[in-house]
């Protein structure tokens, strides 16, 4: 009985922590309306780093080149590909005079390091405003560049966008991947609105070139295999220089992983960078995950044993209700409405997968970006 009383009081504390996150942090984005800014028509360099992406370039690059925007170049970086990626790039360049190719020959010091390849591409770009995406990404509209670039202002030198994943019907893994992506977006958009931006995603991210050189590029974490997006933004983003863009025309859509093994490998690379975040960000993210895990663990323990269930059940229901409201608003905003019905199941499964990935990363570090 004493142990169950301790579990009960711990449960009350955990519910309180979760409600604080959802009501005072995540709600700042969930209830925020998208803002359409006046087009700036500034010169933009779209930067795409590709490694063995010949088929994706054939399929998706035309959607970049056909953007309705008056002044942009596309910098294509061939990062030591072993297929015909470079040939495909050259074929496109022969037809489009706004393409610049950077062919990266690996050095011993930077072998397999995407940050080295990106650095060469950034240096080769001619414009002051840089917009990043991946070779397997498709803009959600012909106005992607216009929407993202319109959020640059005199004081705003970083723009965080939303990188969605394509929907695959009748696939629980696809729903799990998109739920994790939705949760991540809810976090980084909400943190940015709260004045503590901590990351962006390289599938849809923009910043001024001067920010890159002011920070000496990726030098502070050049030996970390991943993190060209989140670690760099974690380093340079501030309350005053960061803007968010989440109009539907500004989304990018990527091909999701189709096997659990491939997705876990991808997430292992991403999760491995979190330990390099600033202490405040690490603490807030860790507390959220721990409170998530404890909420379900303690709630199930108390409900199964029926200990103080008259109080446990209303608290459990309250947290679920707030969770549904915040995620319902967010999923509608980011066009992921089909996930709403599965939310509790996806959350429980994701918590388990994150724990597995964390333990696996402690045992063995993930390697190259591809």
From TrEMBL:
Record keywords: Glycosyltransferase, Membrane, Transferase, Transmembrane, Transmembrane helix
The keyword Cell inner membrane is assigned to this record: no
Transmembrane segments: 6-25, 284-305, 311-327, 339-364
GO molecular function: glycosyltransferase activity
Ranges of residues in domain Glycosyltransferase 2-like: 45-179
InterPro entries to which the protein is assigned, alphabetical: Glyco_trans_2-like, Nucleotide-diphossugar_trans
One matching Pfam family: Glycos_transf_2
Enzyme class, first EC level, given as a word: transferase
Keyword Transferase appears in the UniProt entry: yes
The protein's Enzyme Commission number: 2.4.-.-
Family the entry assigns: Belongs to the glycosyltransferase 2 family.
Protein name: Glycosyltransferase
Species for this entry: Lacinutrix gracilariae
């Amino acid at each position: 009985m004493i142990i169950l009383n301790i579990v009960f009081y711990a449960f009350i504390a955990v519910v309180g922590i979760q409600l604080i996150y959802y009501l005072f942090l995540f709600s700042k984005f969930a209830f925020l309306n998208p803002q359409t800014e006046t087009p700036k028509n500034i010169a933009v360099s779209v930067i795409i780093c590709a490694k063995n992406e010949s088929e994706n370039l054939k399929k998706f690059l035309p959607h970049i080149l056909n953007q309705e925007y008056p002044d942009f170049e596309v910098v294509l970086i061939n990062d030591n590909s072993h297929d015909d990626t470079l040939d495909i790039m050259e074929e496109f360049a022969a037809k489009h005079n706004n393409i610049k190719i950077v062919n990266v020959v690996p050095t011993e010091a930077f072998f397999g390091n995407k940050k080295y390849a990106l650095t060469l591409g950034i240096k080769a770009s001619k414009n002051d405003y840089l917009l990043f995406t991946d070779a397997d990404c498709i803009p959600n509209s012909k106005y992607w560049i216009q929407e993202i670039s319109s959020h640059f202002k005199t004081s705003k030198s970083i723009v965080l966008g939303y990188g969605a994943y394509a929907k695959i019907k009748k696939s629980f893994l696809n729903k799990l991947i998109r739920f994790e992506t939705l949760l991540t977006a809810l976090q980084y958009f909400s943190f940015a609105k709260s004045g503590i931006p901590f990351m962006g995603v390289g599938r849809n991210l923009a910043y001024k070139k001067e920010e890159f050189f002011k920070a000496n590029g990726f030098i502070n974490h050049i030996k970390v295999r991943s993190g060209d997006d989140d670690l760099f933004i974690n380093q340079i983003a501030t309350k005053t220089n960061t803007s968010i863009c989440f109009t539907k025309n500004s989304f990018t859509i990527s091909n999701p992983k189709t096997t659990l093994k491939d997705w876990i490998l991808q997430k292992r690379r991403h999760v491995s960078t979190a330990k390099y975040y600033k202490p405040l960000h690490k603490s807030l993210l860790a507390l959220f995950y721990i409170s998530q895990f404890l909420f379900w663990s303690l709630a199930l323990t108390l409900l199964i044993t029926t200990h103080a269930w008259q109080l446990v059940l209303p608290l459990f229901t309250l947290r679920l209700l707030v969770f549904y409201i915040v995620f319902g608003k967010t999923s509608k905003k980011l066009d992921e409405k089909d996930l709403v019905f599965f939310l509790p199941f996806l959350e429980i499964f994701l918590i388990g997968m994150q724990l597995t990935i964390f333990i696996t990363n402690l045992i063995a570090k993930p390697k190259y970006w591809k």
